[in-house]
Amino acid sequence: MSLLDHLSAKLNAISAQSLTRSLRRADSGTAPRQTINGRELLMFCSNDYLGLAAEPAIAEALADGARRWGGGSGASPLVSGHSAAHEAVADTLARWYAPHIPQARAIGFCTGYMANLAVVTALGDEHTEIFSEQLNHASLIDAARLAKAKVTRFPHADLAALRATLTASTAKVRLIVTDAVFSMDGDLAPLPGLLALAEEFDAWLIVDDAHGFGVLGENGRGSLEHFDLRSERLILVGTLGKAAGLAGAFVAAHATIVDYLLQAARNFIFSTASPPAIEHALLTSFALIEGPLGAARRAHLVALQARLRDGLLALIDRHPRLGWSLTDATTPIQPLVVGGNAEVMALAATLESAGLRVPGIRPPTVADGTARLRITLCATHAVADVDALLAALGRAAAAQEQAA
């Protein structure tokens, strides 16, 4: 068998399980209605939760940043790529998290994936045991695999199981690692309980707040603000390509931790810094997030979530034979669990033929038998958009029951 034949066989096996992935071409910018492959669709799949990706003030700030700073940063931050714009972003984030993390500082990365790899591999040395949440994002799983530390997984949101493994640990350093908002279920980690265990067992708590930043908390500062957590043991990873509407990521932590990341995080040391124009525009994004516009959009999101969830629960009650269910989501991520891979992809195709884009999520992203539609809401969706989705799902459910 040639090397190409070997890969072709693997591709055929993927296809046989209804697991093939494919690219779609966006012909317009991120928005509730987006032109995909030349056709306008009503989108329920973006992580642009506040609708800032298309906000004119951010577009103008990005253009202004390009006029001032040009294109790329030219080098890694430690060489010449750390601009005044990068520093202003880090200083703003340090101010945001000062009430939650003593002596808070922030350090930037090009992506959330890079930030997670950096912090977990830098802190997870041979003296460390990593306690990783079962439903953590792939970036945290990969980071734990790359670290030199022992890795112990604990069941989803199970504080008793985590306590048992912490009690049995003899490691010199312990890292508890968790998503704040779980990206495929939409529920929140029990962060107060996790922090209490970190305090009790002398551990760090690394929180990936990719889907909480901008969305949760009175001022949009995410899960730490939502739960009003305060501790020097907190290490926060935030993503700036979702609710912030731009790109990049950061780690906010005690100044000593950030100083250490500056020396030991290979993803930071050996990567070209993000374009300074993006950093310049992020300052406008932050102002919008913590200002009246951000507050109004977060309130609208909560109302949309309630309307969608009530509608989905009513739909499930009307069609019990389909076996559909909801997770315990309390965020703009509202998954509809369908079950089989082929079934969820057929449902997604039915919706797309009706003009709605809702992606089907299959293993290995989720567990076998829990394939789902990952419905995500944006603050720029209208109530009528949610009603259109519910109506299309109702028609699809009725057709499926009749066919069965």
Specify Rg, calculated over alpha carbons: 22 Å
Level of helix content? 40-55%
What is the CATH class name of the largest domain? Alpha Beta
**Uncertain segments:** none
- What is the CATH third-level topology name of the largest domain? Aspartate Aminotransferase, domain 2
- Number of domains as seen in the coordinates: 2
Which structural class do you get from the secondary structure elements? alpha/beta
Quick one: CATH superfamily of the largest domain? Type I PLP-dependent aspartate aminotransferase-like (Major domain)
Major sheet summary line? 7 strands, mixed
CATH architecture of the largest domain: 3-Layer(aba) Sandwich
Strand order of the largest sheet: 3-9-8-7-6-4-5
Number of helices: 15
Q: What is the approximate shape? A: globular
- Topology pattern, helix = H, strand = E: HEEHHHEHEHEHEHEHEEHHHHEEHEEEH
Strand percentage: 15-25%
Number of strands: 14
Distance between the termini: 43 Å
User: Would you tell me the overall average pLDDT?
Assistant: 97
At a glance:
The protein has 404 residues and is of the alpha/beta class. It has helices at residues 3-16, 56-69, 77-81, 84-97, 112-123, 138-146, 159-168, 191-200, 223-227, 255-264, 266-269, 276-290, 292-318, 341-353, 383-403, and strands at 33-36, 39-43, 104-109, 128-133, 150-154, 173-179, 204-208, 234-239, 249-254, 325-326, 333-339, 356-357, 360-361, 371-376.
What is the topological layout?
Layout (H helix, E strand, L loop, with lengths): L2 H14 L16 E4 L2 E5 L12 H14 L7 H5 L2 H14 L6 E6 L2 H12 L4 E6 L4 H9 L3 E5 L4 H10 L4 E7 L11 H10 L3 E5 L14 H5 L6 E6 L9 E6 H10 L1 H4 L6 H15 L1 H27 L6 E2 L6 E7 L1 H13 L2 E2 L2 E2 L9 E6 L6 H21 L1
Parallel strand pairs: 2-12, 4-5, 4-6, 6-7, 7-8
Antiparallel strand pairs: 1-2, 3-9, 8-9, 10-11, 11-14, 13-14
